[in-house]
From TrEMBL:
<protein>
    <submittedName>
        <fullName>Alpha-1-B glycoprotein like 1</fullName>
    </submittedName>
</protein>
<feature type="transmembrane region" description="Helical">
    <location>
        <begin position="470"/>
        <end position="494"/>
    </location>
</feature>
<dbReference type="InterPro" id="IPR036179">
    <property type="entry name" value="Ig-like_dom_sf"/>
</dbReference>
<keyword id="KW-0325">Glycoprotein</keyword>
<keyword id="KW-0732">Signal</keyword>
<keyword id="KW-0677">Repeat</keyword>
<dbReference type="GO" id="GO:0005886">
    <property type="term" value="C:plasma membrane"/>
</dbReference>
<dbReference type="InterPro" id="IPR013783">
    <property type="entry name" value="Ig-like_fold"/>
</dbReference>
<dbReference type="InterPro" id="IPR050412">
    <property type="entry name" value="Ig-like_Receptors_ImmuneReg"/>
</dbReference>
<dbReference type="GO" id="GO:0002764">
    <property type="term" value="P:immune response-regulating signaling pathway"/>
</dbReference>
<dbReference type="InterPro" id="IPR007110">
    <property type="entry name" value="Ig-like_dom"/>
</dbReference>
<keyword id="KW-1015">Disulfide bond</keyword>
<keyword id="KW-0393">Immunoglobulin domain</keyword>
<feature type="domain" description="Ig-like">
    <location>
        <begin position="272"/>
        <end position="349"/>
    </location>
</feature>
<keyword id="KW-0472">Membrane</keyword>
<keyword id="KW-1133">Transmembrane helix</keyword>
<dbReference type="InterPro" id="IPR003599">
    <property type="entry name" value="Ig_sub"/>
</dbReference>
Length: 495
């Protein structure tokens, strides 16, 4: 039995067997290319020669190949053992990359090699934690990486990418959004809805208006989100809403989400008048400041406590509240700073009273705003650090202040077949699944806005994606297995 040590990990393996002295009855008898499962293949030997079989089993980078040739109850055994640089593992946090009282956070180290010992290291620490399962509970913040070694290869693999674990005394905030395409709705509507999304699953949610907890209908369609359904009578003085969550009754509430402003008018008061300044008939240049003046008729006011005004934008796809302001008088001025072509739209305003029964007006007539020039480019952010290993998923975040657009992804200036239609928030996550070396390149994103007329932004800043694949190489070795004098089987192994 001979022992062969190969130099590189097996990406593919080909075994060919042939006769040292050519014969018309014996031809090439085997071609094998597999790394996934164990298999047994029979050699195509003629009836005049003894039977033979090849058993191929793979487990990561350690591969055992047995060639059995039966000669009068004897067995010839060829053992091929491969070693080489161990591929990097990858490290991920579950459920989130942070720790807080009451939450159990784990780091999971994974690789393609079986039967190994994983090691977790925190930057600045002297020692490592070792486990065969690769699951480590995290108790301290820091920058973590992992690697591993095998029972036969004590030189550890290269380290994984770094995962940063943060520590929060109070859990970070959730995200609150309106489920409607509009945040200013017709009085015939029976309810409005808000969606609260937490970074954790199986938590308790709470919706608040100021310091007041809202006792409204809650529906949860998945463990990390909850929908709150509001009636007109729940709106109060139309103060902003926030949401928060907690792990259980024994833990602290999270920070509040960013506030979401809703205005819902019963349209029982006279409509206001909206004007644009400095001129309602001109087109504005990019970067300008535009003022909208919303004036309520004094004759229709029934309260001296003041009014809440709301400015909203409307186009074919969107009906969105932009700003709200309180005023002790009957008018207010809204400002749009640093306008761009994406601000070109139709605008209107409403007002509501600040005291019960919180009556509101019908919307004003529309004022059309036109801004010259191309829209501002978006920003592209990589949601990973360093090189990415082949087979992993990556996410690129395209950020823009413009909603209701089509977002496109480009690699080295060429369109990637990936689009997101009608982005309703200020970013969109573009995912690439199971990347390989072919995905390496410089990525940018852009968006197209269709109203009031089609306009396409310039590309964003570039983000470079480097994909690190498995090591490759070619090693060819041969064995001559003597069957009987003058005849042998030559085994060539190439990777």
């Amino acid at each position: 039995m001979d022992l062969l040590v190969l130099l590189e990990p097996l990406a593919s393996l080909t075994l060919t067997c042939k006769v040292c002295e050519p014969s018309k009855d014996l031809h090439r008898i085997l071609h094998l290319s597999s790394m996934e499962t164990a298999c047994t293949l029979s050699l195509a030997l003629p009836p005049t020669l003894p039977s033979a079989s090849l058993i191929f089993s793979a487990s990561g980078v350690h591969t055992l190949i047995l060639l059995r040739v039966r000669l009068n109850h004897s067995l010839i055994l060829l053992s091929l053992i491969h070693t080489g640089p161990l591929p990097r593992p990858w490290l991920s946090a579950n459920p989130v990359p942070w720790i807080t009282p009451g939450l159990r956070t784990f780091l999971l180290c994974q690789g393609t090699v079986r039967d190994v010992v994983f090691m977790l290291r925190r930057e600045g620490d002297d020692g490592n934690k070792e486990k065969e399962q690769g699951i480590f509970q995290v108790h301290e913040p820091g920058n973590y990486s992992c690697n591993y070694y095998t029972n036969t290869e004590y030189t550890p693999s290269k380290p994984s990418g770094t995962v940063t674990i943060k520590e929060y005394v109070i859990p970070p905030p959730p995200m609150l959004t309106s489920l409607e395409s509009s945040t200013v709705d017709e009085p015939e509507m029976t309810q409005m809805s808000l969606l609260c999304v937490a970074p954790l699953s199986d938590v308790e949610f709470q919706l608040r208006q100021g310091e007041r907890e809202m006792k409204v209908l809650i529906v949860s369609t998945s463990p990390e989100r909850a929908s709150f359904y509001l009636k007109l009578s729940d709106m109060g003085d139309h103060s902003p809403f926030t949401c928060r969550y907690r792990l259980n009754r024994m833990t602290a509430w999270s920070e509040d989400s960013k506030p979401v402003q809703l205005m819902w008018s019963d349209e029982t008061l006279p409509e206001p008048v909206l004007t644009v300044e400095p001129s309602p008939h001109q087109s504005f240049e990019p970067g300008s400041t535009v003022q909208f003046r919303c004036t309520a008729p004094k004759a229709g006011l029934r309260s001296e406590a003041g009014l809440r005004f709301g400015l909203h934008l409307e186009d074919l796809y969107d009906h969105r509240l932009l700003q709200t302001q309180k005023s002790s008088g009957n008018e207010t001025v809204f400002q749009l700073r640093n306008v761009s072509a994406t601000d070109s739209a139709s605008y209107s305003c409403i007002y509501t009273e600040l005291t019960p029964p919180y009556s509101g007006s019908a919307p004003s007539d529309f004022v059309i705003l036109r801004v010259n020039g191309p829209p501002p480019p978006p920003k592209l952010q990589a949601l990973w650090t360093g090189k990415v290993f082949a087979g992993h998923d990556v996410v690129l975040r395209c950020q823009s202040d413009v909603t209701g657009v089509i977002v496109e992804l480009l690699r080295d200036g060429k369109f990637v077949p990936y689009r997101i239609l009608r982005v309703l928030n200020n970013y969109s996550d573009l995912g690439l699944h199971s990347v390989g070396p072919q995905h390496t390149g410089n990525y940018t994103c852009r968006y197209t806005s269709w109203l009031p007329e089609p306009v396409q932004s310039e590309p964003s800043n570039p983000v470079e994606l480097l994909v690190e694949g498995m090591a490759s190489g070619v090693v060819v070795v041969g064995f001559c297995l003597l069957i009987f004098p003058g005849l042998c089987i030559l085994v060539n192994c190439a990777i």
